[in-house]
Amino acid sequence: MRGLDEARKLYTERGAQMIHDCFPEYEGRIAVGLAGRGSQCFGFDDELSRDHDFEQGFCLFLTDEDDAKIGVALSREHRRLCGKAQTEHSALGHAGTGVIRISDFYRGCIGSPDAPDCWQAWLYTPSSAFAEAVNGEVWSDELGEFTRIRNAIKNGMPEDVRRKKLAARIVFMAQSGQYNYSRCLKHGENGAAMLALSEFAKNTAEAVYLLNREHAPYYKWLLRGMRELPRLGTLADALEFLLTADNSEEGAMLKADIIEDICAQTVAELKAQKLTCGTWDYLEPHAFDIQSHIQNGEIRTLHIMEG
Fold it and tell me: I need a labelling partner for 7 at 20 to 30 A (CA). Which of 111, 203, 241, 302 fits?
């Protein structure tokens, strides 16, 4: 069973009753779910995932005011319910269950206790940070404060920022996949050719997330999560082939064809969303076309690769 399913089951069968019995006056003020860092919060975990940064339990999100009043006692009851941690914590990770201030949770994910309030924060905060802030599930939130911020992060990216980030991804796809991959091979730079493919795959995947209006997760989960997206999600298999198949002469020709097919499907989706009007096969002019329609002048005049 996935960690997310286990956490939900534990809350449903025992956690909700614990809150009701021990903290009845706060029952409607505690948000409960599982979200944040870790593969279990994305639903991508397996048995191997449990060797580090894994704990049984769920998250109990409190306002700063409520945490000052019941945080210690609620933490004690959560530990009594779930037991102590049985896996080691990695240097940059933690299980992230138990009692957490709402402000601390979002500050830990995106560096701010609330959703971004300016376009610069939306543009320059890593997509993976936003993904960690809105992943997982929320099972109870009568107060609504945790979910208010969660929804603002999930759905609140300004359209001009989405277009700018998308323009950057598209131009990188053109440069790395359509242009530099084959040229690197012709120069005998096989390592550089593989780096070009990696850049192409990463930027293509991130573009697909943007086209789906979703935040892209950390690189190791890009393709896994991409397969669940309705728009162009099926391209994940093609990207995996580009990264794993050999670069023999025949293989390189096949990869070049696959790159062009991926780019053609991307252009079709850009047109479907009315993000570009061009008919070019090469992606680079599409990137400039996307950026030219950005309304905010400061964003529109940024370097095409920025974002």
Answer: 111
Task: Specify whether the CB–CB gap between 99 and 75 falls below 8 A.
Answer: yes
Q: Which residues of the chain have pLDDT under 70?
A: 47, 49-54, 84-95
Fold of 3-155: Beta Polymerase; domain 2 (3.30.460)
**Residue 207: other Cβ atoms inside 10 A:** 26
Q: What pLDDT is recorded for position 93?
A: 47
Q: Give 244's contacts (C-beta < 8 A, 6+ positions apart).
A: none
Burial call 265-280: b when 16+ CB within 10 Å, e when fewer? bbbebbeeeebbeeee
DSSP of 119-170? HHHHHHS-HHHHHHHH-SEEEE-SS-HHHHHHHHHHH---HHHHHHHHHHHH
Return the pLDDT at 107: 97
Instruction: Spell out the residues 6+ positions from residue 273 whose beta carbon is closer than 8 angstroms to its own.
Output: 211
Q: What is the per-residue pLDDT for 223?
A: 97
Residue 167: how many CB atoms within 10 A of its CB? 30
- C-alpha 184/C-alpha 169 separation (Å) is 20
Beta strands in the chain (DSSP E): 31-34, 59-62, 98-101, 137-140
163 in Cβ contact with 245 (< 8 Å): no
